[in-house]
Amino acid sequence: MKTRKITVLLLMIPFLVMSQKEKNGKVYKNHPAIAIVNQFNKAYVDGDVETLKSLVSDDFKMWNSMNNNPNYKGGDINNLTGQSAWMNKNFVNMSIENRGSAYSDAIEYKDDGTYVYTFQMFTAWDKNNGFKIKTPRNGTFIFDKEGKKIKRFLWSDNQAAWDKWSISRETVKNGVIYKDHPSIGTVRKVYYHLAQGNIEKTFQDFGKNARIYDSNLTDKDYNSLEEQIESVTNVLSEFEIVSIDEVGYPDYLDYEGNGGVALSWWKFTFKNKKSGEMKTMKLHSQMWFNSKGKIGREDVYYNGAIFN
Questions:
Q1: Distance from C-alpha of 284 to C-alpha of 265, rounded to nearest angstrom
Q2: What is the DSSP string of 219-245?
Q3: How far is 179 from 253, CA to CA, in rounded Å?
Q4: In this structure, is the dihedral angle defined by the CA atoms of residues 109, 113, 114 and 119, taken in order, positive or negative?
Q5: pLDDT tens digits for 163-179?
Q6: What is the pLDDT of residue 144?
């Protein structure tokens, strides 16, 4: 008897769980409220103040959902139109478009009216300094009882994108530039040993996992240290280095908290071992140093057609 009661109870559990569901509204992919939101976004990026005013209720309020200021009270229609006008004056090619395959949802809640949820991308260029802002923007639009006017607007952007834009408008120091530095000495030794044809010593200050980004690579992004040594060895089998001359002077950029990079400019003079033809080549190098003083990466730019 006890076993039978337990069995009956277990059979009732799915029914009890199902009975807890309660429908609270309908979701729409296409809806008049979505059309109003699209009008709102277009008016915002166009700086169309009058259209914005016509689309919102008299008690309109808006909030940046990413704002964590405890005293933040949001904004009203004046803040909205002022923000739109300022953005339109200082940015160009603004757009608010659906993100990827995402689309807006309109939900008619049984008790709370109509909400529109958007999943979009905000893009704009600061016309004063060319900075590009591109950030996901999720919006929540709450309509009035009639479902005709936007009563509340909540949005969330990637705050880091706006912080970076804000810094772009300032003059910010990011380290010290040296025209002589121990790392510059390391760079000069690299090219000195290369001029002597000593491959082993040329790469002795490179880290084992160093990557060399060569502007002439077409089938991959970079060479490993071993691949670069092989490439240089192949060149020297056909060409003799007559001289390597420093052009101007190198700069070492010691970044704050991010290591440093040595920028240098060189003039190579080669002699083709078969033909005896002399050729010159300009080369620009950027060597990135790690905390141990080893070269972890080199970006090198030159016209590789000289070796064809």
A1: 5
A2: SSS-EEHHHHHHHHHHHHHHEEEEEEE
A3: 9
A4: negative
A5: 999 999 999 898 999 99
A6: 96
Mean pLDDT on 7-22: 60
Q: Is the pTM of the predicted complex or chain greater than 0.85?
A: no
* Cα dist from 199 to 16, 62, 203, 231, 308, whole Å: 78, 65, 7, 11, 22
What is the DSSP code string of 285-296?
EEEEE-TTS-EE
Helices (H) and strands (E) in the chain, counts: 8, 15
Strand pairing class (206-214; 175-178): unpaired
Q: DSSP letter for 277, please.
A: -
What gap in Å lies between CA 46 and CA 176, rounded to an integer? Answer: 42
**DSSP one-letter string for 129-155:** T--EEEEEEEEEEEE-TTSSSEEEEEE
Question: What does residue 89 show for φ and ψ, rounded to 5 degrees?
Answer: -80, -30
What's the confidence (pLDDT) of residue 215? 95
pLDDT over 70 at 292, yes or no:
yes
What would the 3-class secondary structure string for the chain be?
CHHHHHHHHHHHHHHHHHCCCCCCEEEECCCHHHHHHHHHHHHHHHCCHHHHHHHEEEEEEEEECCCCCCCCCCECHHHHHHHHHHHHHHEEEEEEEECCCCCCEEEEECCCEEEEEEEEEEEEEECCCCCEEEEEEEEEEEECCCCCCEEEEEEECCHHHHHHHHHHCCCCCCEEEECCCHHHHHHHHHHHHHHCCCHHHHCCCEEEEEEEEECCCCCCCCEEHHHHHHHHHHHHHHEEEEEEEECCCCEEEEECCCCEEEEEEEEEEEEECCCCCEEEEEEEEEEEECCCCCEEEEEEEECHHHHC
Q: What is the pLDDT of residue 105?
A: 97
What is the amino acid identity at position 227? E
